[in-house]
Task: inverse folding
């Protein structure tokens, strides 16, 4: 007996995978100047730093990241960039009116 895969679901999955690869591989220089971001942990493709927040209690993980990278940390949560401010001095500086 020969195993036959339905054509449409296989083709659709392959097409979706190729679209994701092309979208992820676009040249970031074509989007304009990249802002200088604070330091942060290494990111994984597509999910960013979500895996680090899922390993334990998020506030403990963020405390550990602040100890390692400083009071201001850049995290990538999927496709969204987040800046986490965890020191009172940095929070006061950010919240001041210009």
Result:
């Amino acid at each position: 007996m020969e195993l036959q895969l339905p054509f449409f679901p296989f083709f659709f999955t392959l097409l979706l995978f190729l679209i994701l690869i092309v979208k992820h591989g676009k040249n970031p220089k074509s989007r304009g100047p990249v802002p200088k971001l604070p330091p942060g942990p290494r990111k994984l493709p597509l999910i960013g730093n979500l895996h680090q927040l899922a390993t334990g209690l998020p506030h403990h993980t963020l405390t550990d990241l602040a100890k390692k990278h400083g009071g201001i940390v850049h995290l990538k949560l999927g496709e969204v960039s987040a800046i986490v401010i965890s020191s009172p001095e940095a929070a006061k500086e950010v919240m001041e009116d210009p």
Observations:
- The CA atoms of residues 15 and 48 lie 23 Å apart.
